[in-house]
Amino acid sequence: MPLIADIREDISATLERDPAARSAVEVVLFYPGFHARLAHRFANALYRRGVPLLPRGMMHAARFLTGIEIHPGATIGPRFFIDHGMGVVIGETAEIGANVTLYQGVTLGGTSTRRVKRHPTLRDGVVVGAGAKVIGAVVIGENARVGAGSVVVTNVPANATIVGVPGHIVAFRDESNGVIQRLPDPEWERLEELDRKVQAMHELVEHLEEHITGLHNGHHDEEIPAVTSE
C-alpha cells in the first residue's frame, strides 16, 4: 500500500503544479514525467537489491519512451514532478528531496570519474528551471529556485534564487512572510551603467552632427566674393 500511496501523491503533485493537467487519468496516460518516475521506482528497488542489468534496461527503455534519463541509483523523494521532461538527465548519485520540480532540459550531472558522490543534492521544495545545469556534488537548499538556463557549480542556500552562467544569487525569499528580498546585482548594474554611457555618447554625436550641419549651411549662405584680375 505505501507504493500505491506514493504514486497517488505523485499524481496529486502533478495536478497541483501543472494547470494544464485536467485529471488523474490524463496524468497517468499522457505525462512522461510520471511514467519516468514510475519506472524509476521499480528500477531503483531492483538496483538496491543488487539485481544486475535489469534496472539499467528498464530505465533505458523509459528514456526511449519519455525522453527522460534517470539512473536507477538516483534517490528521489515523494511528490516529485517533471514538467514536460524532454532532455532531463539525473545522475546515479543525485539525491532529490520531497516536492521538487524540474522542467525540461534540466541536467543533474557529475564532474568526477571516481565512484563517489558526484551528483547534486536537491533539498525539499527546490525548483529548477528549463535548461538549467546543476553540476557536481553541490547542495541546493530547501525551497531554492534555479533560473532557466543557469549553470550551478556551487552550493546554494535555502530560499535563494540563483540565475546566470555561472549561477549567482539574486534574491532570497523570507519564508515567514513570503517577501522576496532582491540583492544588488553587480553585473546588471554594470550593464545599466554601460547603457547610460552609450546613450550619452549617442546624444553627443547627434549634437555634434547638428552643429556641423549648421556650420555647413551657414558657410553656403555667405556671399562668395568675386575674383578679379588686375
How would you characterize the overall build of this protein?
This protein is an alpha/beta fold and about 230 residues long. The chain has 2 domains: about 1-185, Hexapeptide repeat proteins (UDP N-Acetylglucosamine Acyltransferase, domain 1, 3 Solenoid); about 185-225. The protein has 5 helices and 16 strands. The protein has helices at about 1-15, 25-30, 30-50, 55-65, 185-220, and strands spanning about 70, 75, 80, 90, 95, 100, 105-110, 120, 125-130, 135, 140, 145, 150, 160-165, 170-175, 180. The strands form 3 sheets. The protein has a 7-stranded mixed sheet. A 5-stranded parallel sheet has the order 1-4-7-10-13. A 4-stranded parallel sheet has the order 2-5-8-11, with no helix packed on it. A hairpin with a 4-residue loop joins strand 14 (about 160-165) and strand 15. Helix 3 (about 30-50) packs antiparallel against helix 4. The longest helix has about 35 residues, at about 185-220. The N and C termini lie far apart (about 120 Å). The relative contact order is 0.07. The model has no long low-confidence stretch (mean pLDDT about 90).
Characteristics:
230 residues; alpha/beta; seven-stranded mixed sheet; 16 strands; 39% helix
Q: What's the total count of β strands?
A: 16
The CATH homology group name of the largest domain: Hexapeptide repeat proteins
Structural class comes to: alpha/beta
What is the CATH domain class of the largest domain? Mainly Beta
Q: DSSP strand (E) fraction? A: 15-25%
Task: State the major sheet.
Answer: 7 strands, mixed
Count of distinct structural domains: 2
CATH architecture of the largest domain: 3 Solenoid
* Widest sheet: strand ordering: 3-6-9-12-14-15-16
Helix content: 25-40%
Question: Number of helical segments?
Answer: 5
CA-based shape: elongated
